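Protocol step 4 of 5: obtain the predicted structure for the target chain.
Materials: sequence only (see below). No template structures provided, no constraints applied. The aim of this step is simply to have a reference model before the mutagenesis design in step 5. Sequence pasted as it appears in the construct record:
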Amino acid sequence: MKGVGLVAAAFVALFCCSTASADDLWLPHAADATWTYQWSDSVYAVTPTLEKVTVKSQSGPSFVLAWTTDGLDNPADAVSSSGTVSFQDTNSGIVNTDWSSTPPPPAFPILCAQAASCGNALSSTLYNLIWGSRQPVLAEPLLQGLTWPGTGGAANDVSSTSTYVGRERVVVPAFPDGVLAARVESRITQAGALGDPYGSGTRTIWWVYGVGPVKIEFDHAGGGTAPITVATLQSTNQTPLSPPTDVDFFPFTQGSHLNYRWTNTKHLKQPETDRFVVDAVVNGTARLTLKSTSGPIKAVGSYGFSKRVDGITNLWGTTSSSTKLKFPPLGPAGAAQARRNHFVTALDLLTFGLNPILGANPKVGDHWATAKGSDDYSTYGVTGETQVVGMQRVRVPAGSFRALVVRSTLTQRGFPYGSGVRTAWFAARKGLVKLVFAHGDGSISTVELLK
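Step 4 output (structure tokens):
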């Protein structure tokens, strides 16, 4: 487990923004990428409008998309507009950082409390994309059951709750034979605008990996005759890719609990049982509280985990424990005795050594290793590697599960008990169901999910 000194930093991480990720293929932005959309509104823009979207600029994880209706042979009564929308790829998803454009048509609802200097509009495809959910536009990793809050509007007066519904095939002009898309539904609310209820309603976006949004439908509030805005992708030079798995092998569900039993063949022959409760979840970061319920160790504490594009990471672990048992020492060798690691709970055996614990979208063959000079190395003094081995049926007291097998080889120099081979089994929508740690001192720790 990590030491008490890391707790303050962990709580900061619980509420702060994450670092940038690599180019996000849910909204790719190669310099030559282009998309042409057609959109219309059943009340305010009945004549369909074609818009061409291009990549205006990019710098690191930040990029700007530009659109224009010029040169597309739009009818005279179609909407004429141009503008830019700025985005950033982050470790927790795609965020919108800025926008600018020509003014919306005068007939459109005013989406501010006053007409003067109103910075809101829904008169383009990209504006419908970011409305009500600028940060993030799309939360990631995109896993089954994911729901997230968002805000938007020039005055942050628009709020949303978005839910990843799942994958389905959608047919649009750019892909007439259909293409596999991730469907995200957002319930959007705006209060106090002159144009209410146009700024509120239900928006659905179909995202295609390697392409971006291929269809947007915004059913505005107001009943059966309320406007409906629809945008569809007409053409693009981007190619659909097979999306990463959306199975959640480490779910964060507030209020859920996990009960584990663990033993060691030499040092803990009488079973120890621990109860973990997910008592807080904020922006993809969860806090689990611990209480031992039976056995020779009495412990309480908490653990923090984050779920980001680069994987499931243990942010902190702090416990207070007492026992008459004598466990072998753990390192790191250069740390003061009070800063040494200890195995006193089932999760200590899982979080020990290196991050991430598991990739965000794991697949067979994935592997990662510790790096000297990293935070993990300074905390544990462990070198090693983790690899995703495959799927396997495993039976534990909680039931029978088809689980993802993840194996780590760990070496804590000078400490056999902190070295060895750890195998963990993760079940979809359940999390860790079994762990076996074959220690370098010849003992074997076993953790099993009870319920």
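Step 4 remarks: Residues 207 and 213 are 4 Å apart (CA to CA). The two ends are 23 Å apart (CA to CA).
Proceed to step 5.
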